[in-house]
Amino acid sequence: MTVTAGVVAVQGDVSEHADAIRTAARTHDETATVHEIRTSGTVPDCDLLLMPGGESTTISRLVHSEGIAPEIRAHVEAGKPVLATCAGLIVASTDANDDRVEALDLVDVSVERNAFGRQKDSFEAPLDVTGLDDPFHAVFIRAPVIDSVGDGVEVLASWDDRPVAVRQGPVVGTSFHPELTADSRLHDLAFFPA
To answer: How far from 190 is each of 170, 172, 187, CA to CA, in Å?
Structure first.
């Protein structure tokens, strides 16, 4: 079976996420065709969608100006899975705590940009993630903090007593960059739940 995946490719680690999606699909004896999304018209054909990191204000501006934002919302309303990582999580949130970011309201969380520090404060940590048998080696780069979660949000992982991975409906959001490791289990958890 082949799944059609889309990576919102206005910024971020597009090829790394595409590789992780393909690897996760193979573990389920499936093939993933991955499209890089820069304009409207492709999201409606996707079975799953990924919103990578980058710069949240730029991502927000481009998904709205290119007409991708309403397609992403419709994707989630149809119950199709989304993985939003780092800046992608900020854009997917209900409250980005930044007037320059027009949030998509996909996950009922409030976030604070770069709250774990700047580039020089980047770090790696083993995370216990609900749904994974062994710790996940997470890479935090200019990572946002999830300040608060709504009633319908499940916290999948925390670091330093702060949520860093959440799920609401078909959307999984992470503060960290799961694509920067050889471990595709986070993509698997988001896109191919048991």
So the answer is: 8, 6, 5
**Domains of the chain from N-terminus onward:** 2-191 (3.40.50.880)
Give CA separation, 35 vs 44, 105, 121, 143, 152, in Å.
Answer: 12, 24, 32, 26, 30
pLDDT tens digits along 36-52:
999 999 999 999 999 99
Q: What is the DSSP string of 155-183?
A: EEEEETTEEEEEEETTEEEESS-GGGSS-
pTM of structure: 0.95
Q: Is 179 a catalytic residue?
A: yes
90-144 confidence digits (pLDDT tens): 999 999 999 999 999 999 999 987 655 555 557 899 999 999 999 999 999 888 8
Of the candidates 86, 112, 124, 154, the residue annotated as catalytic is 86
Q: Is 77 an annotated catalytic residue?
A: no
Q: For the chain, what percent of residues have pLDDT higher than 90?
A: 81
Count how many residues are written for the chain: 194
Which residues does residue 166 pair with via DSSP β-bridges, in sequence order?
155, 173
CA distance 78 to 42: 15
Question: Where do the DSSP E strands lie in the chain?
Answer: 2-8, 31-37, 48-51, 82-85, 93-95, 107-112, 123-127, 136-140, 145-149, 154-159, 162-168, 171-174
Task: Clarify whether 86 is annotated catalytic.
Answer: yes
Active-site residue (options: 17, 75, 179, 187): 179
